[in-house]
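Table S2 (text version). Query chain:
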Amino acid sequence: MKIIWRENPMTAEQIVQHLPEGTDWNDQTVRTIINRLMKKKALGYQKSGRSCLYYPLISEKECVRGEPFFFKPGLQWSRRQQKYFAHVPAYGTLRLK
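Corresponding structure-token output:
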């Protein structure tokens, strides 16, 4: 989300290019996370030719305020996901798998 908040709209490929150094996520991992965030109404998109341009539907300010916009109680994250999404507030507790 921090990448999309800084610069948007962006394609999935651009998001991959903006990942922090040392992140070993591939294109498919990023697309999976994008799809999950879209289902939870955190990201929107618009078609641009053969690509999709993604943009945030919730501001960083709302997220920092602690508004529980898309996480459900008991949502489980892998250790890798926990590392990159630890700053996002949630209902209940984020638990590691």
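Notes on Table S2: The helical segments are 2-6, 12-17, 27-39, 60-64, 79-85. Residues 89-97 have pLDDT under 50 and may be disordered.
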